[in-house]
Amino acid sequence: MEIILKTDIKGLGYKNDLVEVKPGYGRNYLIPQGFAVLATDSNKKILAENIKQAAHKAEKIKTEAENIAAKLAEVTLEIKAKIGDSGKIFGKVTTLQISDALATQGFEIDRKKIAITVPVEGAGEFTADVDLHREVKTKVKFVVVGE
User: Start and end of every Ribosomal protein L9 domain (predicted)?
Assistant: First the structure.
């Protein structure tokens, strides 16, 4: 079943993408939740017109995302966590903590756009992936220190 995404969906695609999904996933989840519309001929024509009108706006957004990515590459965040005698942390470092630390540095990035790929089990330096735009992805460094 072909659908047009109305929002970015992790692992599936970005807004205004034409994607193929299983019928049940499209009919029972994506379309009722308002995340997608059925890819009929009229909807495809509307999508093409919207893409044409938004082309110059998209370039501006991409340029802003590239500027933010360049600034993020230079930033090292400090995340505080309780560390036990064995050197392991209690709990875990979450994307919310990284998002809050970025907010204190002046970057407003949604926690859903941040992914920690390596498990953080103790103090040290780690990296997290940040998805700023469909074509702009970067890494941000963070250091876990004891409280």
Answer: 13-40
Just give the CATH number of 62-146: 3.10.430.100
Q: Domains of the chain: which residue ranges?
A: 2-53, 62-146
Q: What is the pLDDT of residues 50-63, one digit of tens each?
A: 888 888 788 888 88
| Exposure of 5 in the CB half-sphere (CA atoms within 13 A) | 16
